[in-house]
Amino acid sequence: MECVDRRLVGDLIAVSSVEGLPVSEAARRLCLTRQGLYKLLRHLREGGYVEEGPVVKLSQRGKDLLSSVLRDLLIYFNIASLKLLGQVVSGLGEGAFYMSLEGYRRAVERLLGFTPYPGTLNLKLDPKSMAYRRYLDSLPGVHIPGFSDGVRTYGAVKAFRARIRDIEGAVVMPERTHHPTDVVEVIAPVKLREALGLRDGDKVEIEIYLD
């Protein structure tokens, strides 16, 4: 197993807190001189952990390292699930199409253990849940591979087993999606709107399993 420099992890955590900011503003927030931050970013860039550009930005390698640290922390603190609060919103009808495709349906049956209803429940997340939504971006989840039907290629999907009230299902995060980041899609063996009596605007809490 590769040994990770503890200082490197600390530097990446610090840099991640100012991601998207210009170097001058990032340095001010980190209580560093511009020269000091430039030196740190150059070191991280040489290791492939940040990208070149006008703003601070982690590379995929940097994000992957922080993801592994996050997984270790979740295990250490015995955090097996998290809860998101959202408001039911109407989708574009894409969920019904994609969940009716044999490639996705069979993969969900094999990897998640249930036959998905051909449709998704869309939840617009409460702002306080967005931090937890970003946790999911950094975790591997259950990988549902993409496939081709000979005419079109369909992208991979990341999924997390989940429970909404007393119904077990999953949150799906497609590799390609038209939804904004504050909207998540939920699949289940049943039509959730009917089974739970939900309408647009209803508030719903969903528990997401991390293991």
UniProtKB/TrEMBL annotation:
GO terms for biological process: FMN biosynthetic process; riboflavin biosynthetic process. The keyword Transferase applies. Residues 88-208 form the Riboflavin kinase domain. Mg(2+) binds at residues 120, 122. Its EC number is 2.7.1.161. It holds the Pfam family CTP-dep_RFKase. FMN binds at residues 177, 185. It catalyses: riboflavin + CTP = CDP + FMN + H(+). Keywords: Flavoprotein, FMN, Kinase, Magnesium, Metal-binding, Nucleotide-binding, Transferase. It is an enzyme of class 2 (transferase). CDP binds at residues 91-96, 190-193. Binds 1 Mg(2+) ion per subunit. Pathway: Cofactor biosynthesis; FMN biosynthesis; FMN from riboflavin (CTP route): step 1/1. Gene3D superfamilies: Riboflavin kinase-like. Its cofactor is Mg(2+). One of its GO terms (molecular function) is nucleotide binding. InterPro entries: RibK_CTP-dep, Riboflavin_kinase_archaeal, Riboflavin_kinase_CTP-dep, Riboflavin_kinase_dom_sf, WH_DNA-bd_sf. HAMAP family: Riboflavin_kinase (MF_01285). Catalyzes the CTP-dependent phosphorylation of riboflavin (vitamin B2) to form flavin mononucleotide (FMN). Belongs to the archaeal riboflavin kinase family. This is Riboflavin kinase. It comes from Pyrobaculum neutrophilum (strain DSM 2338 / JCM 9278 / NBRC 100436 / V24Sta) (Thermoproteus neutrophilus). The gene is ribK.
